[in-house]
Give the backbone structure.
Amino acid sequence: MKTLVIADHDNGQLKPETSKTINAAVKLGFAVDVLVQGADISGMANDVALMDGVSNVLVADDAAYAHQLAENTADLVLSLASDYSHIVASATTTGKNFMPRVAALLDVAQVSEIIDVVDAETFKRPIYAGNAIATVKSLDTKKVITVRASSFDLQNEQTAAPITTISSSLENALSSFVSVEQTESERPELTAAEVVISGGRGMQNGENFALLNGIADKLGAAIGASRAAVDAGFVPNDMQVGQTGKIVAPNLYIAVGISGAIQHLAGMKDSKVIVAINKDPDAPIFQVADYGLVADLFDVLPELESAL
Amino acid sequence: MKVLVPIKRVIDYNVKARVKSDNSDVDLTNVKMAMNPFCEIAIEEAIRLKEAGTATEVVAVTIGAKASQEQLRTALALGADKAIHIETEEKLESLHVAKLLAKIVEQESPELVILGKQSIDSDNNQTGQMLAALTNRGQGTFASKVDVDSGTVKVTREVDGGLQTVELKLPAIVTTDLRLNEPRYASLPNIMKAKRKPLEVIAADSLGVDLAPRIQLVSVNEPAKRTGGIVVEDVAQLVEKLKTEAKVI
Ligand SMILES: Cc1cc2nc3c(=O)[nH]c(=O)nc-3n(C[C@H](O)[C@H](O)[C@H](O)COP(=O)(O)OP(=O)(O)OC[C@H]3O[C@@H](n4cnc5c(N)ncnc54)[C@H](O)[C@@H]3O)c2cc1C
Ligand SMILES: Nc1ncnc2c1ncn2[C@@H]1O[C@H](COP(=O)(O)O)[C@@H](O)[C@H]1O
């Protein structure tokens, strides 16, 4: 029994999800190898080698893997799969894209977004927007699993594990990369930040999101948003927190002008402390907030910035 | 170009699911059901392709109990030309669904299959990718834009860092994200017309797919409840509480 983790990165930097996914993989109880695939990725392989519990790092550094196309990544993972009983990746948009392809090619039913490892074949995962937690047992001999990283801890350091280069260049004929529009931000990543401040439809427009900047600067916070704020074009899609966006669990989550629909709560209700600022005292967000402030956000945001 | 749209009957997105008292599953008795919201977006996209003259036929398909014909009728009312119901009383996993859909793809030979990215009940986010693997097609998941050209389709995808665009050879598989379009409502005359559109019923176990469970549901529990908080008077008190009580700033 041996586990293969596929590292997640943005072509230059490892995502914090990788370390947390390795934490989950270690809990399975077997040796953990980590595949780092991409183009020009040797620095990241060194970082992975230092993560506690990693036995071997496998590096597939090839132009075929530069854009993380699901078809190529799935074929690469498939070429390694016979050595492993468990194949694990983060439930990021990358992992969600290629892992079910791997599972189907192996004829395995994937277990998506686990939040706990009960034993090597039994896992907990949220269903129905987190309104229920299912305990499921995988009956397949091989397990294909994605991990909700926010439910696991970062791994400690170890002395570097050996790194093996694998020569592989599986370029598919079905899909090709065209372009990427990367959202540029100086702020910490939403899924890694200790503090997150999110704006909703109550922000009224994109310019008003600037009211969150000063507060985020002072708290070292990432800025998120509700679906309504993204749909309205106030902010880019990668800021959406929720059932179908990003899942966050920071020490402090501040929801501003967000009503608290179940789909939004699904993405943030495991935060340690929740603050809600909303002018409607009956907004459902107050049912999960540790501290609620019933007020007009346009009055209190400048006050909050200067009080910090 | 023929477009196939798999749709799923799920709990209405406004309804909060409740766990059964024996912890065996979620209780769906007398709960309002609807078409999975991502499938509504998939149907809408297919109909727009037809309206633009790109698609010639839109076929909706669902796998589920008899009651899921209600969602197929909705799809027909929205503009699908015909519907296929793969009937089963079993609760199937995404792998089973993908295998059954692969049979329908074989039968119907659609150039494009548009699925939702995720069912809001299982929250699996698997079926489209699995179908792409099983039919050896390229996949454009979490689409916020779909541009069909001759022989190819460009798909702009909502990814964690922003937007990625890929080009797929047709035939291909696309899954929808929230920003792809805003689904329309069915008009009353179209709802009436939908009753006369063709709806084919196929027994799931007649398609030669092994439907034995691969995942056993051991139990279903309520998530940890948050204990109710307090309402603060003003910003000063909020900051004070965050500093001295919660100690998070
Ligand atoms: C399939 C599906 C998936 C979804 N996925 C997600 C998801 O991942 N994430 C997500 O967030 N949503 C998601 N949603 C949408 C969700 O159902 C809600 O529609 C959305 O979260 C509402 O956003 P909101 O709270 O910003 O807007 P609203 O519900 O309109 O709330 C705005 C709030 O702002 C307050 N407000 C207005 N003005 C002020 C002011 N001046 N000062 C203070 N407060 C003010 C109002 O009182 C109100 O409570 C999904 C929906 C579906 C169907
Ligand atoms: N029983 C089903 N019948 C038809 N389509 C389905 C079914 N289950 C899932 N799908 C399709 O697959 C998408 C993703 O579902 P899932 O992988 O279960 O999250 C849905 O939005 C549908 O388009």
About this structure: The mean pLDDT of chain A is 97.
